[in-house]
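It is worth pausing here to work through a concrete case rather than discussing structure prediction in the abstract. The textbook approach is simple: state the sequence, then state the predicted structure, then interpret. We follow exactly that order.
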Amino acid sequence: MRGTGLYKQLIRYGQQLQYTDKHFFYRRIRAEFEQNKNLQDKQAIQFQLGKKLDKSQVPVIQEKDLEEKFVRGWGPGGQAVNTTSNAVFLRHIPSGLFVKCHESRSLENNRKIARKHLITKLDNLVNGLDSVENRQKAIDSAKKERKKEKSRRKYQQLKLIKEGGVEEKENNSEESNELGKNDLDKLDEK
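Step two, the predicted structure:
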């Protein structure tokens, strides 16, 4: 499976699709190949291949390694929030990391959210730049840069067209002036 062979195989595969919009599939394949056809730098190629986030390196948290406390809530909401113990304080004993969560009024939702936040924190600690969060930020940053570059090129082209259009208008007005002079000359001759 090399460059064009892969492209042809994907197009053939698209012909067999039954439950997917074939035109969307073809446009998507063409767009991806068109966008990435000039990649030669190994890092750029790896980045394109690594767009799908590999979550296999994310650490798994054991329940026995957690210390969980339910504390009273805080923030806006008045007495209803301040008197109920629906905020979660979750500490990972081996690493010493902790999370406080009071994003919803439900204790169960806060427990789930706290675990997600703790896993993210632990992933950042263990994997550093290779953590899921950092890779997602890199992908988002690259997308934003590509979008800015595309927008910059678009406006640059529009500016060139506009400048070219202004010159054409000037040429047209000079031609119309010449036509007007010729018409006057013809009238004078009569």
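Step three, interpretation. The longest helix spans residues 132-189. The mean pLDDT is 77.
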